[in-house]
Amino acid sequence: MTQSSFDHAAPRVLIPVDMALLPPLPPDAVWHQLGGDTMGTTWQVRALAPRSVTGDAIRVAVSACLVRVIAEMSTWEVDSDLSCFNRAAAGTWHALDEGFFTVLDAALTMAVDSGGAFDPTVGPLVNLWGFGPHGGGTALPDPAAFDRARARCGWQRLRLDRAQRRAWQPGGVSLDLSGIAKGYAVDGVAQALHALGCASWLVEIGGELRGQGVKPDGQPWWVALERPPQDTHAAMRLALHGLAVATSGDYRRSIARDGCLDSHTIDPRTGAPLRHALASVTVLHPQCMVADALATVLMVLGEDEGMAFAGARGIAALFIARRGHGFIERMTPAFAAMLA
């Protein structure tokens, strides 16, 4: 499939297989649209709520969810639970709040399944390559510093006590959950809206989305899937019901270094930023936390290995890779099955 295959073509449409099961909207539902700043990006909520639920009530519930995620898992807040764990003494157990434990447990499960393509202990390497809270220069890391950072990484060094919801700090482990925590926050906001009795909603945080139900006019929550800049394939629009969307792209944040653009995504297996032809991966999944982590995993694995990994697990994913002066698309069977 060449770049020009879809130039100037009409948008392509993806429909979830359970779209026919949409529940009717209650007659008294009230439309709300809210937004704000969080996690170095923005959030938006569009929701249909019972008449008894005010916009202020929705904002309070959303804000409480986002504040909790930041307080537990932010690498940018020195007093977050995650930052405190990263500074903790070697050989100590630490009780974790439910959200932090849930995300760390999911991250370790993803690390095992992906053979280390996802690793929540990659924090020292993220910082070394200049993508952490304090930024960095454009020089290549010193080899000795690189070796020291790699020695501190490795998901196998972590231990979880699920019965008591604790994590073991072996010494020097620096967690970075940025490849999964934002998706968890999207799920948390969706759960908060459900708890308020909202009949339908669309949640977005920094490009990660989750939708449920339909808009007031009965139309689905149509969302455009993110694409790399300069990609001229026809746009894709997804009817977002019962699904979440997460995209990982090498164009989102990079540093020019050694004649190349280093992606902010670190391959934990090599300790270095990605430098392959894969430009982006978009994953559709019922849980945004899972979609978020899987997008990172598939991006790290690369085009061929990622396609094989996703296909074997029935993951709906779109891969966009650079070829010459353009881009090509590859879709897993689960993703292609949604094309209308």
What is the tally of helical segments? 9
Summing up helix and strand content along with how strands pair, one would put the structural category as: alpha+beta
Give the end-to-end Cα distance, rounded to a whole number of Å. Answer: 19 Å
According to CATH, what is the class of the domain at 1-22 and 220-340? Alpha Beta
In CATH, the architecture of the domain at 1-22 and 220-340 is: Roll
Q: CATH homologous superfamily of the domain at 1-22 and 220-340, by name?
A: ApbE-like domains
Helical content (DSSP H or I, runs of 4+): 25-40%
**Strand count, sense and closure of the main sheet?**
8 strands, antiparallel
| Overall number of strands | 18
Features:
T-fold, globular, single chain, disordered N terminus, 340 residues, three-stranded mixed beta sheet, alpha+beta
Would you mind describing this structure in some detail?
- Among the domains are: 1-22 and 220-340, ApbE-like domains (T-fold, Roll), CATH 3.10.520.10; 81-169, ApbE-like superfamily (T-fold, Orthogonal Bundle).
- The protein has 9 helices and 18 strands.
- It has helices at 55-73, 81-87, 98-113, 123-128, 143-151, 181-195, 288-301, 303-312, 333-336, and strands spanning 12-14, 30-38, 41-49, 92-95, 159-161, 166-169, 200-205, 208-212, 222-224, 236-239, 243-249, 254-257, 260-263, 266-267, 272-273, 278-285, 316-323, 326-331.
- The strands form 5 sheets. The protein has an 8-stranded antiparallel β-sheet. Strands 1-10-9 form a 3-stranded mixed β-sheet, with no helix packed on it.
- Strand 2 and strand 3 form a beta hairpin.
- The two termini are 19 Å apart.
